[in-house]
Amino acid sequence: MQPKTGPTESAAEYVEDRIEGRAADGSSDCRSHSSSNWLDTLYPIWQWLVLVPVVVLATVLAALVVIVMSLLGYRRAANTRVAASWARLIAWLTPMRVELEGSERLDPEQSYVVVANHRSQYDIPLIYGFCGLDLRWVMKSEIGRVPFVAQGCRAIGHIFINRGRPDQARAAINEAVACLPVGTGVLFFAEGTRSRSGELMAFRKGAFRAAVDRNLPILPMTVSGTRSILPPGSLRVRPGRGRLVIHEPIWPQALPHDDAVSDLCLRTRRTIAAELETRPARPDGAG
């Protein structure tokens, strides 16, 4: 099955062709190097004079709109239309070419515990803007202190947890999962943080405990490509492509609680790891 591509395909693909020397006229390595230098020189101007100011303004406006819509009882529309459009705007401005596979596996009548790997801050617009789910995110408590972002996220129903207080975090997650409307998902980056090396790290078990406790399926999602757009610890954004694969849901097994949690964690990590192994990182470390 051919993956779906997002609306930024032509612009990002053109940039990638210039960088990688894959233009239709058979450009040489020298011309590719020259194009890459051109991009290195001019793209920061776009990033700091257009991309960043527009994203900041769009974030403030989107936050205000979703707060009002949520107060009026339109929380789902605020999330799936306004917030998702904010994410797609970031992808379009970057530009980030988006490849989406597996959206047909979503059941609109089913709620999910969504688990994804984490490679870059650009994982957020990739998943939020293009997965097609009404998502609630599990976020670290520090984000709850960012003006406008915090208020907008709380209005939609995203979940803030203090990673230094495991009992509080588990209670907040269980409460949120228990109240999930039909056809929504609560998203965890199960590694707990972005992978600095690009390698898949060990999974924490909070998502899998929530799934077992509520007998909900895990919906694995594999993210790749975003690390080359914005590497962890960097402020340098570059055009590129992000790929999102939505896998088949994985249901908890009828096992003792702790065994069911471990089994679910293992099967989910294997699913994501297998997809990453079929899409190895490029030689520059991107992936």
What's the helix and strand layout?
Blueprint (H helix, E strand, L loop, with lengths): L3 E2 L3 H12 L8 H43 L3 H19 L2 E6 L10 E5 L6 H8 L3 E7 L8 H8 L2 E3 L4 H13 L5 E6 L16 H9 L3 E7 L15 E7 L10 H22 L9
Helix pairs in contact: 1-2, 2-3, 2-5, 3-4, 6-7, 7-8
Describe the protein's architecture and organization.
The protein is an alpha/beta fold. The chain has one domain (4-278): Glycerol-3-phosphate (1)-acyltransferase, CATH 3.40.1130. The chain contains eight helices and eight strands, in the order E-H-H-H-E-E-H-E-H-E-H-E-H-E-E-H. An eight-stranded mixed beta sheet has the order 1-2-8-7-3-6-4-5, sandwiched between helices. Helix 2 (29-71) crosses helix 5 (149-156) and helix 7 packs across helix 8 (257-278). The protein is globular and about 60 Å long. The protein starts with a strand and ends in a 9-residue tail after the last helix. The model is unreliable at 8-12, 18-28 and 282-286 (pLDDT under 50).
Quick structural summary:
47% of the residues lie in helices and 15% in strands. The chain has 287 residues and is an alpha/beta fold.
List keywords for this structure.
alpha/beta, Glycerol-3-phosphate (1)-acyltransferase, 47% helix, globular, eight-stranded mixed beta sheet, 287 residues
Number of strands: 8
- Give the quaternary arrangement of the chains: single chain
Q: Looking at CATH, which topology would you report?
A: Glycerol-3-phosphate (1)-acyltransferase
State the order of secondary-structure elements, H for helix, E for strand.
EHHHEEHEHEHEHEEH
Distance between the terminal alpha carbons, to the nearest Å? 22 Å
Q: What count of helical segments does DSSP give?
A: 8
Q: What gyration radius follows from the Cα positions, in whole Å?
A: 19 Å
Supply the helix-strand structural class: alpha/beta
**Percent range of helical residues:** 40-55%
Dominant shape: globular
Biggest sheet layout:
8 strands, mixed
Indicate the CATH class: Alpha Beta
Widest sheet: strand order? 1-2-8-7-3-6-4-5
CATH-derived architecture:
3-Layer(aba) Sandwich
